[in-house]
Amino acid sequence: MPTVLLVDDEPLAREGLKRLLGACHDVRVVGEAADGKEAMEKVRDLHPQIVFLDIRMPKMSGLEVAAEVSKLETPPVIVFATAYDDYAVKAFELSAVDYILKPYEKERILKAMDRAKALLGQTEVLKDQFQVLNRAVSKGSYLDRICGYQADNKDRSFFDVMSVVYFHAELADVYAHLKEGKTYLVKSTLKELITKLNPKKFFQVHKAHIVNTEFVEKISPASSGNFVIHLKHSDQKTVPLSRRFARPFRDALRW
């Protein structure tokens, strides 16, 4: 039976959510928290599998709590609670993190629980969602231009990052493949790049590939839950989409 922690600074909101969750007979509420700091303590002490987390709270916001939770070895599934006009809704949609809107509706709560239960135990998927969420709500700016060079010419070239169809890593090298057909080496790792690229446009789709969604033409199923992405204006017609990265990519592109 999945265990749930309710986090909201309003007692009436927690009570209302607890009452609605009563319709889920296979769920057990193990605790409540009134602020972000208490939420972190309860997560560490009670090890809930699912956390309903309010965004706007004293001491630590829901987003700050989520950032800390994502560092745990086995993070819980988080369902955010927010208002219709909350700035974070777009970030939730982008990262495929689930959310419920206030005032709560029974059907939406039940749907959120179904989605949360489907994610139980999928640690890597949860960490990927948190990574995209953290990027999406970041206040920092993203790369507009990038520097690269070709193996036979050490001159540095600068080009618009949106002209990159995809990046791919090969051993210690990372290559940027441009829509004009040129390929450049860039001095970065994929892990560093993904934090600097606009998360609305660029997605990591495989351990060795980042794609620009502007150039995605179609997606085809492959074996073992994996997919193949077909690209426009590319020297390589397809790149792999691994099962690990498929869900955030699918939800963001709504396919």
Automatic annotation (TrEMBL):
A Pfam family it matches: Response_reg
Annotated ranges, domain HTH LytTR-type: 174-255
Domain of life: Bacteria
Phosphoprotein keyword on record: yes
Domain Response regulatory: 3-117
InterPro entries reported in the protein's UniProt record: CheY-like_superfamily, LytR-like, LytTR_DNA-bd_dom, Sig_transdc_resp-reg_receiver
PROSITE patterns recorded: HTH_LYTTR, RESPONSE_REGULATORY
Gene Ontology MF terms: DNA binding; phosphorelay response regulator activity
Modified residues (4-aspartylphosphate): 54
Record keywords: Phosphoprotein
Name listed for the protein in its UniProt record: DNA-binding response regulator
Organism in which the protein naturally occurs: Candidatus Abzuiibacterium crystallinum
